[in-house]
């Protein structure tokens, strides 16, 4: 299995190389050269299997010879052993034909744990084997950072720096990043918003001396391995609802487009997904792009679903690559326009290709609060604000003949203020985290400045 860059100018890599390098040398994102197929019989055979076995069968063809079967199976088993639900990604019925897929039973209470726990294991195995080390730098609007710190804390071969926007993550998210005591993890609060953090991360990858000097690695969804691990729960959910005999649709609360792109890959592998619905908050660049063809960035406005306060949505580049018939030059040109002019227009042909797979909708702040309240009143469930954005958009896009699954991307206790404001109920943290608010925090403050951030990292990495 080989991986190619969406901008067509970087070396073609193996799974291990793509995983350890993150962003391609030409600024693009790695995607598989071809998407492996699962037949109807392969999909039918997933019925009733434990999540770990589904994960093995879905991901195995993408990994090539990087890991042998026994090792890969063991790493998957270790990755999900800490999850608080036997089904790992259980389905819960919300109403007739509408289901939630609960992705928040991992150690940091958000869907990011599905991929991060796995790539923590994969990195450790690959680095131990080669005797090398890496410096991971991540950008977060809250959940990726906490999941990465949890997955990599205490590892000898890895130093981790997480850039998060100062004052723009929830207190629970911040404390999950700032209270771990291990010396190899660092939470860095930068002035600015998530897009600034992600832009500085990409600048570091474009700065070859720094990139090579610190052996820079990425754990954001620019890393293909992150997307791959997220493909699995589309299969487990669809099979539980009758695939391959029955089609299923998914609505995905979306920011950086990684999670929904994983659904697109599942569909490309043969899973009978009817519609993939992009659900955004008022930072709605993706909804505007799919409905009008204009991908134009605006100001990132804070919201009660802060993890989706994103305007420059990295993985959209992967979808564009396919929509432009895998023409890396065309994608590179669009990304140049984005950098120089803040946006681009998607060609008619590419827009039609995108619309073949994706629908989209948006939820205002009032919609989100009202959905948290209505869902609680109707079902007794407390949902996080990101999930509420998904539920609201899903209800608008449902074809009653096809089951709809909304991805429940975080636990409501990560965003207690928004949930309490909507329902009057403050969701408690699970017992194992009950002292989170008393633990001591360790925060580095930094300007939104490449040189300053690189200096902090260079001073702190262990050699
Ligand atoms: C809770 C939550 N929901 C949804 C999203 C959106 O996911 P993605 O960035 O993969 O689109 C994120 C992070 O981005 C998140 O943390
Ligand atoms: N919502 C994310 C933003 C980064 O997304 P990623 O999937 O590219 O890591 C977060 O919580 O940090």
TrEMBL record:
It catalyses: O-phospho-L-homoserine + H2O = L-threonine + phosphate. InterPro entries: Ser/Thr_deHydtase_PyrdxlP-BS, Thr_synth_N, Thr_synth_N_sf, Thr_synthase-like, Threonine_Synthase, TrpB-like_PALP, TrpB-like_PALP_sf. CDD domains: Thr-synth_2 (cd01560). The modification N6-(pyridoxal phosphate)lysine is found at residue 112. Its EC number is 4.2.3.1. The keyword Ribonucleoprotein does not apply. One of its GO terms (molecular function) is threonine synthase activity. Pathway: Amino-acid biosynthesis; L-threonine biosynthesis; L-threonine from L-aspartate: step 5/5. Residues 92-331 form the Tryptophan synthase beta chain-like PALP domain. Its cofactor is pyridoxal 5'-phosphate. Residues 2-80 form the Threonine synthase N-terminal domain. Keywords: Amino-acid biosynthesis, Lyase, Pyridoxal phosphate, Threonine biosynthesis. It comes from the Bacteria. One of its GO terms (biological process) is threonine biosynthetic process. Belongs to the threonine synthase family. This is Threonine synthase. It comes from Roseivivax halodurans JCM 10272.
């Amino acid at each position: 299995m080989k991986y190619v860059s969406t901008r067509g100018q970087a070396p073609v890599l193996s799974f291990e190389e793509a995983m350890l390098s993150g962003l391609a040398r030409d600024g693009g994102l790695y995607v598989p050269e071809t998407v492996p197929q699962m037949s109807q019989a392969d999909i039918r055979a997933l019925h009733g299997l434990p999540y770990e076995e589904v994960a093995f069968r879905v991901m195995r063809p993408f990994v090539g010879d990087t890991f042998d079967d026994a090792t890969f199976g063991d790493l998957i088993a270790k990755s999900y052993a800490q999850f608080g639900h036997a089904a790992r990604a259980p389905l819960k019925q919300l109403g007739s034909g509408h289901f939630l897929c609960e992705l928040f039973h991992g150690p940091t209470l958000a869907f990011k744990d599905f991929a991060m726990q796995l790539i923590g294991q994969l990195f450790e195995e690959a680095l131990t084997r080669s005797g090398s080390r890496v410096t991971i730098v991540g950008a977060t609007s809250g959940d990726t950072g906490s999941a990465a710190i949890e997955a990599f804390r205490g590892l000898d071969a890895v130093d981790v720096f997480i850039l998060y926007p100062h004052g723009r993550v929830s207190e629970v998210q911040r404390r999950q990043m700032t209270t771990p005591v291990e010396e190899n993890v660092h939470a860095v609060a930068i002035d600015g918003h998530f897009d600034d953090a992600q832009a500085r991360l990409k600048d570091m990858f474009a700065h070859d001396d720094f990139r090579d000097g610190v052996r820079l690695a990425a754990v954001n969804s620019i890393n293909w391995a992150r997307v791959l691990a997220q493909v699995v729960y589309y299969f487990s959910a669809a099979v539980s609802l009758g695939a391959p005999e029955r089609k299923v649709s998914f609505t995905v609360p979306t920011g950086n487009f990684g999670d929904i792109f994983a659904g697109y890959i599942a569909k490309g592998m043969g899973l009978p997904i009817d519609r993939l619905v992009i659900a955004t908050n008022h930072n709605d660049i993706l909804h505007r792009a799919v409905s009008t063809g204009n991908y134009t960035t605006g100001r990132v406005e804070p919201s009660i679903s802060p993890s989706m306060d994103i305007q420059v949505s990295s993985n959209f580049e992967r979808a564009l690559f396919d929509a432009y018939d895998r023409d890396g030059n065309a994608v590179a040109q669009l990304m140049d326009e984005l950098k120089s002019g803040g946006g681009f227009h998607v060609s008619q042909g590419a827009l039609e290709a995108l619309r073949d797979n994706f629908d989209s909708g948006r939820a205002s702040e009032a919609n989100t609060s009202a959905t948290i309240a209505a869902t609680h009143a109707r079902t007794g469930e407390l949902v996080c604000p990101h999930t509420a954005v998904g539920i609201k958009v899903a209800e608008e896009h449902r074809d009653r003949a096809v089951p709809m699954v909304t991805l429940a991307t975080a636990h409501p206790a990560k965003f207690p203020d928004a949930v309490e404001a909507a329902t009057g109920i403050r969701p408690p943290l699970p017992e194992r985290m009950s002292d989170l608010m008393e633990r001591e925090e360790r925060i580095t403050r930094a300007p939104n400045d490449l040189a300053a951030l690189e200096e902090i990292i260079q001073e702190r990495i262990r050699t």
